[in-house]
């Protein structure tokens, strides 16, 4: 899979982000996207082929794998990366709209089209809420699908066409568990950064409104 489009999106978003937003972009790009492409993708590349059960009953191994891994970890994280990055497009589109509007009217309509204020502030806050919501949703979904954040060495399966309870073994469970913990931790870090940026912008906007109102009352 080519991740060039996601890299370009993150680079574009970086231009319009606050300081905390730039840290979020760095975490997503360095600690999630690069780790995913460079290491995690290879670790789970042959997960189905390396899943072994102690019985050769036709179809048994396939249904057991499907039961314990309803969605491939690697495809799940790929979808998560794409989905949590997509709300940032709202900000990019809004800035593009401002710039095109100025070009169309052939005059300066904004002090700085890329400055986070007015309608762009609302769009930015909505994108942060969506990113945070999606991160939490995917963490909960992962927990529900796999019964926790763990990679067992051995799973027991008694689903038909297996004739009885069979033992199935997952390859490289320790290595997979390390990367699972790392990816979950970076996802939690992104949630904290999004909430911090959301709080910072709301506090900054509230302070600005209060000072403006105070100055107006004094006048």
Automatic annotation (TrEMBL):
Record GO biological process: cell-cell signaling
Gene3D superfamilies per record: Gap junction channel protein cysteine-rich domain
Membrane-traversing stretches: 21-39, 76-97, 118-143, 177-203
Pfam families linked to this entry: Connexin (PF00029)
InterPro entries found in the cross-reference section: Connexin, Connexin_CCC, Connexin_CS, Connexin_N, Connexin_N_sf
Ranges of residues in domain Connexin cysteine-rich: 134-201
Localization terms from the record: Cell junction, Gap junction; Cell membrane
Alphabetically ordered keywords of this record: Cell junction, Cell membrane, Gap junction, Membrane, Transmembrane, Transmembrane helix
Connexin N-terminal domain mapped to chain residues: 42-75
Gene Ontology MF terms: gap junction channel activity
Membrane topology: Multi-pass membrane protein
Keyword flag Transmembrane helix: yes
GO cellular component, one term: connexin complex
Main function: One gap junction consists of a cluster of closely packed pairs of transmembrane channels, the connexons, through which materials of low MW diffuse from one cell to a neighboring cell.
PANTHER family per UniProt: CONNEXIN (PTHR11984), GAP JUNCTION BETA-7 PROTEIN (PTHR11984:SF26)
Family to which this protein belongs: Belongs to the connexin family.
Subunit text: A connexon is composed of a hexamer of connexins.
Protein name: Gap junction protein
Organism field: Prunella himalayana
């Amino acid at each position: 899979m080519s991740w060039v489009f996601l890299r370009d999106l993150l680079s574009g978003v970086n231009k319009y982000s606050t300081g905390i937003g730039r840290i979020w972009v760095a975490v997503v790009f360095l600690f999630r996207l690069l780790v995913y492409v460079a290491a995690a993708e290879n670790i789970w590349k042959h997960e189905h082929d390396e899943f072994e059960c102690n019985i050769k009953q036709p179809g048994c191994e396939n249904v057991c794998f499907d039961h314990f891994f309803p969605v491939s970890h690697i495809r799940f994280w790929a979808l998560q990366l794409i989905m949590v990055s997509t709300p940032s497009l709202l900000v990019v589109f809004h800035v593009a709209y401002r710039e095109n509007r100025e070009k169309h009217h052939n005059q300066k309509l904004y002090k700085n089209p890329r400055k986070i204020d007015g309608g762009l502030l609302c769009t930015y806050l909505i994108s942060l809420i969506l990113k945070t919501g999606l991160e939490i949703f995917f963490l909960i979904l992962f927990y529900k699908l796999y019964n926790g954040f763990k990679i067992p060495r051995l799973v027991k399966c008694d689903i038909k066409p297996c004739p009885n309870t069979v033992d199935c073994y997952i390859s490289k469970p320790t290595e997979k568990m390390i990367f699972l913990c790392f990816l979950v931790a970076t996802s939690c870090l992104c949630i904290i950064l999004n909430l911090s940026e959301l709080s910072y912008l709301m506090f900054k906007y509230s302070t600005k409104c209060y000072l403006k109102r105070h100055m107006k009352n004094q006048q």
